Protein 1
Amino acid sequence: MQKILFVISDGIPDRPIRELGNKTPLEVAKTPNLDRIAVDGISGMMHTVDIGVRPGSDTAHLSLFGYDPHDCYTGRGPYECAGIGMQVNAGDVAFRANAGTVDEQGIVTDRRAGRIESTRDVIDALGKITISGVEFDLQPSLAHRIGLVIRGKNLSPNISDQDPHKTDVPVHTVKPLDHTPEAKFTADVMNQFTKLTVEKLSNSPFNRKRKESGKLPANIVLFRGAGSIPHDLLSFKDKYNLRAAFIAGGPMYRGIAKILGMTVAEFAPSDGVTGLPNSNLDAKVRRALELLPDYDIIFVHFKAADSLAEDGNFRGKIEFIEKIDRAIKPLAERNDFITVITADHTTACGLKTHTADPVPVTIKGEGVRTDDINAYTERECAKGRLGTIRGQNLMPILIDLMGLAELYGA
Ligand code: ZN
């Protein structure tokens, strides 16, 4: 059985950029290794979630793994929380949260509490919280960020955000988004939680100290992205009977892989795997090749092209694409496994956000058909013989290339 090394370059595709002579960063970047993989393989385009859908990174990754996000995605919270090592069980509701600042009138004056370095004091000051039988689990994440998971009976993720996503406006009252008693109950509990956090935090000693040293108090927990994991979600192993490993720096990506039961590679700080433009991509590829004997499929995620595009930094994006190209050189040279090169979505530098444009995909390996495509770009791959597929088609295609697909019919 051939194994698979699957590279996901977050947001690497783009739209034509006037300053680049109406070319995309992928077209301008010098990428001999990506292009060699395109020469040796078969290429096409892929709508990761569906035609005309602007994918989030979370829904796009679920689709690439062969899951329909309409069935298993309700919000980003569970993936963020699992990514920082929190336990998220089916039936729990999980949120992305921030330590923020509100004034006496409940107006949000800072969504990051003056860029607080750690939320450990905030969480300690809140102590153990139970409201109407619902238990609250809070864990610090990076800087002002907090993972929040609630556990109890009759909870629903179908509630609105309390975080207004901007300052100088009041914090939002959480509302049920359907007519179920569960959504109403959960919204009520979360509104009580908001009140409680402000009461407990406003008078806490650590906030008095922050005020004395001229810092903004961290006196509210702002939350958004409520989500839960469906009871019938199959693990990747149960779905495909494949041993999967996932290599990424970002918590949300790691959380998706953890929830699907994949092995998530750990790195020491000295490895320099940061998810930023300075990330050590060679260390990721090296780890992938080391893990290959023990796994059937290994996903490697490169983040920064997306973040650079969201800053509109197309020159930085070109540089990062060239860095990816250098890192994947061993994949261009080796033919003892199947290589997949693709992205989770397009991130357009001009719009500084994700778009619904399909992404290029190339598959190369022993026995894989080839075509006449000689560059891994949006324009070239669109002419490839793989045609245009959906994200959820990719895993079945790979299962077939691995020789594992069951015959449909007789
Ligand atoms: Zn993404």
Note: Residues 10-11, 57, 306, 344-345 surround zinc ion (CB under 6 Å).
Protein 2
Amino acid sequence: MNVAGAPPRPERPGQGSTDGAARATPAVELRGLVKEFPGPSGGEGVRALDGIDVDVSEGEFFALLGPSGCGKTTTLRIIAGFEAPTAGEILIRGRPVQGVPPFHRPVNTVFQDYALFPHMNVLQNVSFGLRMAHVPRAEAEARAAEALEMVRLPGAARRKPAQLSGGQRQRVALARALVNRPSVLLLDEPLGALDLKLRKAMQLELAQLQQQVGITFVYVTHDQEEALTMSDRVAVMSEGRIHQVGPPAEVYERPRDGFVADFIGETNFLDGTLDAREGGRGRVRLSSGRKLVGEVRSDGLETGAAVRLAIRPEKLALHPRDGHAGPGDGLARLDGAVERVHYLGTDTRYHVRTDDGVVIVRAQNRHEGFADAFRAGDPVRVHWDPRHASVLR
Ligand code: ATP
């Protein structure tokens, strides 16, 4: 799937516009990347990447999101130069980097396990790369101190890594990666070792830091919430391929296929066949014979194709089926009975049994007593705006 041709990234305060210039050179371009690892003792190899095409814009916070083993780390390692691709090309700021060793690429990597030198103090750790590049000691230390300010760790310069908390160590690793101002910072699950609360706090901080320094971030995570909250754009990967690239709201609201809809957030899937297509809409005939309309999101779907109608639980609403007036015109509906009710504080999840399977409805508890509105066994009508339903392959 060709996902090149990234849309222009949203303008951020304080950043200059490209002023109608032709599309700016992307920070990173991946063209037809394939990576095959040999199998053990000549056995069948692993195709870790199966044709990755993507552009990362200058100054963008770009997330590679996908389940374990989908090829995120391999992609990052190829950009960094730790691995060579089997086929394909990598350009950094328009320059092909084939054969350029990692330390000569304008990129730096932050790993989950920090990889700090235990015998050096924080300042030495952060200034190490500059010293290796023969930057005079005083200048290297001044720049390291500045980088420590940036990651909000100015007081810890003389401490050893063992005297720091996990969050502080990760800040040191970040400072060390930022100190020589790389064009692109590659981050491989950098918050993975932190507890949930610290992780959430660091997510916000990291996103702010990226805006402040304006360096392109390519961020690997398997945590969809992390990818959605932090990134300008997300690439959703599975089995060495990119399924969709887009801003968080787009991949969430308009998934291109069943994998994306399922991997990001929670989705109800109703299986059926595409009965008719008109414009961007499709009518799906469910196994019960019922026909429902949704927006066709996957490419190349023909009438008669096996499809899935995908709808997020929070887009669904419940209405009692007690003879009173039902939901208004133009809404899609499905009848069923409440099977289970889960009270979750902010909202309530209802499992509704219909002729086409169980549908999950998530309703916000806007006022007291709302959660008790429906009980197990109640006959209900589930309804939604058809614009919120996606017809997917
Ligand atoms: P995780 O989230 O678990 O780190 P990932 O998405 O980063 O996963 P990769 O580490 O890129 O996935 O691995 C992609 C595939 O390539 C996996 O099947 C993995 O087992 C395989 N793989 C990665 N590195 C090697 C290697 N050096 N030799 C053989 N196979 C490898």
Note: The pocket of adenosine-5'-triphosphate is lined by residues 37, 46, 48, 66, 68-74, 222 (CB under 6 Å).
